[in-house]
Design brief:
about 250 residues, DUF347, transmembrane, 8 helices
Amino acid sequence: MRNKVPEATLVFWAIKIMATTVGETGADYLAVHVGLGTALTGGMMLALLIAALAVQLRMRKYVPWIYWLTVVLVSVVGTQITDALTDKLGISLYASTIAFALALAVVFALWYRSERTLSIHTIYTTRRELFYWAAVLFTFALGTAAGDLATEALGLGFMIGVVAFSALIALVCAIYYVGGNPVLTFWLAYILTRPLGASFGDLLSQSRTYGGIGLGTINTSVLFLSAIVLLVIFASAVEQRSTRTIAAREP
């Protein structure tokens, strides 16, 4: 099995941020505007996620379309988990942020204890891939809770949230480029892109009354889904060219 996770290039981060935006706006659209509710939306998205993850696990290498479909579905499910805890069970964002941070720490601890690495460059066994997707799920849930905590509970608003999380990501990038641990900085950036994408999605989709631009959840979701599709097509072309190059070099 070849490594199942793509290189963390600019295309990777662009799709990741847009996937988190779709997770925020898509979940809101289905639950609120379509009227499915949090529970039904969460159940439907969880079923789709399980199906996509089953296909992803059967692949023997990184395949862009199924990998990124799984990421988008994880984003929606992670958003729904946090929204269900907050809106249905009345759990505070402070508590859910702490709980998801601890859960993610446990996943990382078990992953490292089992495999002695948390690197995305070595996801070439099923066990490592399962640890990877568990970590991804909790990063989305944690990012959703932390983002809502910052923009709503602490009252920063969507615009300040976008600026603040962008600045934190820029700081992590700077630490990486001056010699910071690549695995640690990757996962820190991965966590922070979730609240950045969510804040950006809310900024675009929410009405002006609530501090947004007012594009609406449908327009925002369609816009970013279209961009994701185009970037995944580009990533697929790059992957196919890379595969042909490797095959040509082999004796």
